[in-house]
Amino acid sequence: MALMADISAKLPEWGAELGFDALGISSIDLSSAEQSLWAWLAQGYQGDMEWMQRHGTKRSRPAELVEGTLSIISVRMNYWPEPSTPAEMVLNHPELAYISRYALGRDYHKVLRQRLEKLAERLQTEIGFLRYRVFVDSAPVLEKPIAVKAGLGWLGKHTNLIHRSAGSYFFLGELYTDLPLPETGASTEHCGSCTACLDICPTQAIIQPYLLDANRCISYLSIEYAGSIPLEFRPLMGNRIYGCDDCQLICPWNRFAQVSTEYDFQIRHQLDRASLLELFAWDETTFLAKLAGTAIRRIGHERWLRNLAIALGNAPPSHHIRDALLAKLDTALSPLVREHVEWALQRQT
């Protein structure tokens, strides 16, 4: 155990050398989080993300997902880009496209995965053979409860992780390992009586503190959901075409958020201030080329146009917007996109 304690002491330094802003260690006992997960699923709050239930207890019992797992190394990496057009300014200019700040640069999955693999290599160099697996939103993993147990922050009322000196604008990643490492210890909660995130949510998706209904969440609707956006939510989406940051933008703890120094998270193609009409004009070839290497690309061109059509329908009436929507109807649109373009045209009359 002395060796494991020594390794645990060295891990934060190794993590910092790889660009991680914090590193902690969690045990594999997630029984409390498992109960909360199953209660959430029983209410149907996962929307059509049926895979969350399909994986069963692998999500909450790490040793079932990766046999032999004894502890989990959890890391976080800041993503807030600098310089960027103020998020609030974009939200208040309905002719601009709002993209969640985490998606303005390179796909974080690739960045964190590569760094975690290097961390595992460092561990192997130190101790020899190591059984491990790296995860970054790539498997049934309860990353937030794990990060809480590893001392990387507490779970806020908006269900995102918060840290007192770093806010909530960061990515999480995990390294499952067969090393019996001592747990870091969880952080205490500091949300207090604040309900700012619940009050600001455009669709009231945070139905009570610590409980999110994905069916109502703009991030889910604009990214994960592949179907027709329910009519009741379309006007509430405003100009948010990929994700939503409102609950984090309003959080008082993000006064202490750290700007990312990671080159890969720098803004691409001025996506922090692009116009809706400019993005709506991209054909599929342009979409795939411009967004290569970003997280946005995975939603595909169809959902991209669907989301943009809603935002254009929410924009102030303009003959430029109407002409763009009418021109799009002359192209080979899928039924999904056509429906949303026609809705937008009705809003523009």
From TrEMBL:
Assigned EC number:
1.17.99.6
Per UniProt, [4Fe-4S] cluster 2 binds at 201, 217, 244, 247
Q: Which domain of life is it from?
A: Bacteria
Where would one find coiled-coil regions in this protein?
none
Please name the SUPFAM superfamilies in this protein's record: 4Fe-4S ferredoxins
Cellular localization per UniProt: Cytoplasm
Looking at the record, the residues that make up the 4Fe-4S ferredoxin-type domain are 182-211
**Cofactor stoichiometry and binding?**
Binds 2 [4Fe-4S] clusters per monomer.
Listed binding positions for [4Fe-4S] cluster 1 are: 191, 194, 197, 251
Q: Which residues participate in cob(II)alamin binding? A: 59, 137, 161, 172, 219, 244-245
What is a single cellular component term in the Gene Ontology annotation?
Answer: cytoplasm
Query: Active site at which residues?
Result: 137 (proton donor)
What cofactors are annotated for this protein?
A: cob(II)alamin; [4Fe-4S] cluster
Q: Which reaction does it catalyse?
A: epoxyqueuosine(34) in tRNA + AH2 = queuosine(34) in tRNA + A + H2O
The family database entries (Pfam families) matched by this protein are listed as: Fer4_16, QueG_DUF1730
Q: Name one GO molecular function term.
A: metal ion binding
Gene3D superfamilies named in the record: 3.30.70.20
Predominant subcellular localization, coarse grouping: cytoplasm
One biological process term from GO is:
tRNA queuosine(34) biosynthetic process
How this chain assembles, per its entry, is: Monomer.
Q: Which NCBIfam families match?
A: tRNA epoxyqueuosine(34) reductase QueG
- What family does the database annotate? Belongs to the QueG family.
Relate the protein's function as given in its record: Catalyzes the conversion of epoxyqueuosine (oQ) to queuosine (Q), which is a hypermodified base found in the wobble positions of tRNA(Asp), tRNA(Asn), tRNA(His) and tRNA(Tyr).
Q: What is this protein called?
A: Epoxyqueuosine reductase
- What species does this protein belong to? Thiothrix eikelboomii
